[in-house]
Specification:
With about 260 residues, the protein is an alpha+beta fold. It has helices at about 25-65, 70-100, 110-120, 125-130, 150-165, 225-235; strands at about 5-10, 20-25, 105-110, 130-140, 145-150, 175-180, 185-190, 240-245, 250-255. It is built from six helices and nine strands. Bound molecules: adenosine-5'-diphosphate. It is an enzyme of class 2 (transferase). Its EC number is 2.7.13.3.
């Protein structure tokens, strides 16, 4: 049944009997397991780039001594592994920051400003990929003000747009829309990328899950981006929907209550 119980017994001095208590500690045990798994996954993910850095530092030293042509290349490899560690730590910190965090810090922001600030953080990737990004806002307020937890929604949008840019083997074309109805805001992000096979669609929101590592645009991500998105949206009492067609692209919908 995957249940854990703590059994304790007490002898009563005044009476010839024993009290046996059975305490359900499943929640604590499961939490301990999640924590242990998380730490072991984090260590495992950090170990690979660190091992690479170690190896290439030795190779670099030899190359410098022998004055051969590999120096520049080894520096590049070391640098990309350092970037990987940097990204992993950024994601780990964000994940622990938002895990179970239900307090909302609501304020008004213009939809355009939200998107521009999010895209600004992705400038390098957008330019590298030569991506085309279109936006569309259909909002009640004529000045496009929305009332949200800006920091959290920005991180959700950043992770979704970043994925839309990365998981594509052609020039990315991304549509970002913000819509609203009486009760909710809807953030819609569509790409023309690799698509996500049907059997993977639930799994990609799990911690550290990555679709087949042999996919063409294998990017050294942490596998935490979408779990951060899920954590934030669930704590917001919102929902995420996903439609996708292999080879044609994906659309993520984030729906949050007003
Ligand atoms: P990461 O990007 O660090 O691997 P994520 O949790 O953000 O981790 O995504 C999990 C996996 O889901 C990715 O490895 C990728 O295979 C797949 N994925 C996410 N977004 C998209 C997308 N827009 N198009 C195709 N595949 C995607």
């Amino acid at each position: 049944l995957n249940k854990y119980y703590l059994i304790e017994s007490y002898r009563l001095e005044t009476e010839p009997s024993i009290i046996i208590s059975l305490r359900d500690i499943t929640i604590t045990k499961n939490f301990e397991k999640i924590q242990k798994d998380f730490i072991s996954n984090v260590s495992h993910e950090l170990k690979t780039p660190l091992t690479n850095i170690k190896g290439y530092t030795i190779a670099l030293e030899e190359s410098i001594e022998n004055k051969d042509d590999n120096v520049k290349n080894f520096f590049k490899i070391i640098n990309s592994n350092i970037n990987k560690i940097d990204n992993l730590i950024y994601d780990f910190l964000n994940y622990s920051k938002y895990e179970g965090f239900k307090i909302l810090n609501l304020s008004y922001i213009k939809a355009e400003e939200l998107i521009n600030e999010t895209l600004f953080g992705l400038t390098l990737l957008i330019n590298n990929k030569n991506a085309k990004i279109q936006t569309n806002f259909m909002l009640f307020d004529e000045n496009h003000y929305i009332y949200i937890d800006v920091e959290k929604i920005k991180l959700v949008m950043k992770n979704l747009i970043e994925n839309a840019l990365i998981y594509s083997s052609k020039k990315p074309e991304i549509n970002i829309e913000i819509l609203e109805d009486e009760n909710s805001y809807i953030f819609k992000i569509s790409d023309n990328g690799l698509g996500i096979p049907e059997e993977e669609r639930d799994k990609i929101f799990e911690k550290f899950y990555r679709v087949d590592k042999s996919r063409p645009m294998n990017f050294s991500g942490s596998g935490l981006g979408l779990s951060i998105v899920k954590e934030i949206v669930h704590n917001y009492n919102g929902e995420i929907k996903l439609t996708s067609e292999s080879g044609l692209g994906s659309t993520f919908y984030v729906i949050i209550p007003k």
